[in-house]
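Bug #77: duplicate submission created two jobs. Keeping one. Sequence:
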Amino acid sequence: MVEWNRRLNFIQKWGQENLTTTGYTEQQARSLSAETGITHILSRRFGPFDLPIIYQNETYRIYEIPQGTPSESQR
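Kept job's structure:
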């Protein structure tokens, strides 16, 4: 429970500090991935992200954070 709370607090702070008028950029998501090791983002209200949506329904979206450098993911 303590670790879950720490992670929730971390992501809330990260979200507030990185939000732009259009949401979150791929580079911001890559930085978050590098810092935390996450590869996907499950979002209900958080976002939008400039990332590929690999699944969505009426409630949730799952974004995939491209791995590697930006030039590698565009090949």
